[in-house]
Amino acid sequence: MSQIRIYHRLESPTQTPAIAQLQKKSMELWGSPPHNTYQSDIPKVKAYEGSLPKRARGIEFTTDIEPDSGTPPGKGVCWSNLQKGVRIAEKEDGRTYAIIKVLTLVNHQL
Fold first, then answer.
1. Along the 110 residues of the chain, how does pLDDT read in single tens digits?
2. Residues 102, 61: contact at Cβ < 8 Å?
3. How would you class 47 by CB atoms within 10 Å of its CB: exposed for 0-12, middle for 13-18, buried for 19 or more?
4. Are 63 and 83 in contact (CB under 8 A)?
5. N or C: the chain end with fewer CB closer than 10 Å?
6. What are the CA-CA distances from residue 3 to residues 44, 59, 62, 77, 107 (Å)?
7. Is the dihedral of CA 47, 12, 87, 82 positive or negative?
8. Contact, 41 vs 88, CB < 8 A?
């Protein structure tokens, strides 16, 4: 059985307050393929382990879906279609996203 863990996402151009509201309403997080150093064609939901840092803006959530293994320490975690509980969907913009259900989600806005 999977363990329930706390994760967070900092507010950013891709994690806006408006998106946080949609996430709270749907209790789902969506992720596209990474475009940074760890570029990939595989869509992934990305986050960091633990609670949101004090005075930071963003979301804090729990899920019982295990993240992908092998993530370098301090680089965050991700969920891809390699994990049970992750589903893949294409949006009307033609982009493909990984989706996970969350159990709780708190939207921290200052």
1. 568 889 999 999 989 999 999 999 999 999 998 877 667 888 999 999 999 999 999 999 999 999 998 876 667 899 998 788 999 999 888 889 999 999 999 998 75
2. yes
3. buried
4. no
5. N
6. 20, 20, 10, 15, 22
7. negative
8. no
- Whole-number Å distance between alpha carbons of 103 and 74: 24
Q: What spatial distance separates the first Cα and last Cα of the chain, rounded to whole Å?
A: 36
Q: How far is CA 103 from CA 5, 35, 56, 64, 72, in A?
A: 10, 27, 21, 8, 25
**The model's pTM:** 0.87
Rounded Cα gap, residues 80 and 20, in angstroms: 20
Distance (Å, rounded) from C-alpha 84 to C-alpha 28? 15
